[in-house]
Each structure stands twice: as structure tokens, then as C-alpha cells.
Amino acid sequence: MKTALPTSTDAVHAGERVDRPDHTLAPSIALTATYTFADSDDLERFMRGEDPDPGRLDYGRYGNPTVREVEARIAALDGTEDALLFPSGMAALTTTILALVKAGDDVVLFRDTYRRTRQFVVKMLSRLGVSHTLLEPGDLDGLAAAIGPKTRLVITEMPTNPYLRCVDVERLAEICKKTRAKTLVDATFATPINAMFSAMGIDLVVHSATKYLGGHNDVLGGSVSGPSSLLSVVHEARDVLGGVSDPHAAMLIGRGMKTLSLRVARQNQTALEVARALEAHPAVERVYYPMLESHPDHAIAKKHLAGGGGVVSFVVRGGKDGARRVVDACKLARIAPSLGGVETLIEQPAIMSYSELGPEELVAVGIAPGLVRLAVGIEETEDVVGDLLQAMDAAAGA
Length: 398
Ligand SMILES: *Cc1c(COP(=O)(O)O)cnc(C)c1O
Known about the structure:
The protein has 398 residues and is of the alpha/beta class. Helix content is 40%, strand content 15%. GO terms for molecular function: cystathionine gamma-synthase activity; pyridoxal phosphate binding; transaminase activity.
């Protein structure tokens, strides 16, 4: 098993084919819905699983060479036997979870799990007779107490949104190892560059490829990485449910991944500098970034992450209106959800991801009204820091 974090060389070359048709360097987009057979003998040999080409395919929903190459690169970066690509992060999560659970099973997840994942488990899976256990962020004693023979899946994220909470993934894996529970880490915020969760004992690693892997805010995608024994079950579910990546989208994700290591290195650096600058600003109440000594999970972050990633959350004095003034005063950072792309984005969770909640409910789910979430891009570090500082000053003067 691979345990070293991937390098830039891995990001450019891992999983690449060297036997391309027409000797092209770059992959072509294999636009085909189906595949042909020379004659009935050829078809029957394939159906018996005796084709000399183990990668041969018969229909587009079951696989595509452009997609397959991207899957090989993701598996290499995550240090796993295999990976599967999906048309979105949610398609990756829902297909994977559905593939593994049956009525009577229990799924454990943490309260700060991505809103739509939580909605899928809490609202949709319960209709199918799958129960769930919700734990407070990072509560591993709670996990050890809650886990039982019914527990089939333990889902966590690292770092989480928006407070960048980190969990001791090795201990989590250790707790689950003695049981039938499989572990799944949504590693979207960590990226394969900052953490190799498979080497920490985690069974399945999921990414929203929409974020860092694609990296250009121009394509949706998702992936799951893990051992072939589990992924063959997920593959079968994907064949049935039909959530397959379009080869155009796959090509964009594969191309984006070639610069993943460079981009994440810049984002790690810029986010840390922004976090430090904000922490020193009098109009900021609190900054959340895992690589700051003040973060509640700093010790775990130092142990498990090579970098803090590109997201910095902070609470501005002056509540909802104070945060609104800061966001509106930014000139470089654009207002949008999402993260991990080349452009710096900013949002106020109270009026974006959690806009349906009233003031008391916001407090109940732990979203401060003055919270701002910044997702740094790859612009010059000093430009991103400068933009935030001028926005803070402008908002304070307004
Ligand atoms: C964005 C995101 C998702 C969902 O991914 P999509 O590609 O938008 O479907 C899942 N988990 C996390 C942590 C995310 O940030």
C-alpha cells in the first residue's frame, strides 16, 4: 500500500496511458455510447470474461476509457487499488452509501457533515429502513459507545465545513476495525495533496471533484477511492443507478488534476497568511483555520494534514450586517458558493448555505450570523490578503 503523499510528478503522470491511439500525448475524449464486437465469437468470449483485453467494455454506462484514465489517477493519488468517477460529489456519495447499506443497518455520521449528505442519510435512507446515529463533531468516545453490530458505515469529513473541524482519523479507523462497519472520509477539503486517508486505515475516500480536483470552477464531478473488493460493489450500483461521468467532464477533471499539487500548495500558503492577518485584525472576533494554534483541532490537524487547505472561516464583529459589509467590500474575492478553484470566492453562510434558517436556528446549528467563509484561489498571496484587509477596513469605516 502506498503511504507517501503524492508529488507534482504523480499529479501530472499517475495513471496515464502511454499506448494512446495515433501516439497523441494528451488523452482524447472518447465520445461513444457503446462498443462493438468483431463477430459473435468475439462477443461470447467477452461475455465469458475471457477477452485478452481486461479493460474492454461493452456499453457506455459500464465504463469509458477517458473516465477510466482519470479514475486511475485519482486512485494513484489516494493510494488505493481503485477509484470510480461520478457526475458530482453527491452522486459519488449517494451511490456509494446506497451500495453498502441494507434495511436494518445503522449509519453513523457527525453533525457537521455536508448538508446534503446529512439530508440523504437522515431523510432518504430512513425511508428505506436504514437508521442513523448523529454525533457531535469529532466525538470518538461517542463513536466507540454508539458502534454496534448494526453499524454498517461511519461517515466523516476532514476538515469539515465551515469550522474546519478535524477528527483523529487513525483512532476512528481503529475503533471501526474490530466491527463490520466500513469507514468513509469525505476528503474534499483535505485533497489527496494534504492527506492520504487510505494510509490511516480508512476504507473509502470521497472527493467532490467539483472543488480542488477539477480546480477551475467549470465542471462538476465526484469520486470514491478504495479497495477493489468494495469498489466492485459500488461499480455495480453505479451500473444500475446510472450516475456516470460524461467523458467531456472527465477530461476537464483529469486536466485539472495535473496542476493539483501546485494549486493546493499555493492555497495552503495563502489561506494560512490570510488566517494570520485576519487573526490580528481588531474587527475580527474569531478565525477558524486548522493550521492556526488557536484552532480547537490544531494538534490533530498537525498530525494528519500536510496543509490546512484553501478555506478560512472567520467571524466579523457586527454580526450579520458586519459580515455583509466585509463580503460586499471585497474587490478580488467573488461572491459564490464552492471552493478549491483558481478564483478566490467568499460567502456568508447565514445568507447562502443556511439561508432558510432563522436567527435562533442558526445559533442552534452553530452558524454565527457574522460568519464569513473565504475559499482562496491561486492569485498572488499578497493580493488575496490585501483584498481582505482593505475590505475589513472599508467595512469598519462604513
Ligand atoms: C461540495 C461538496 C460536496 C458535494 O459535491 P458536489 O460536487 O457539489 O455534488 C460533498 N462534500 C463536500 C465536503 C463538499 O464540499
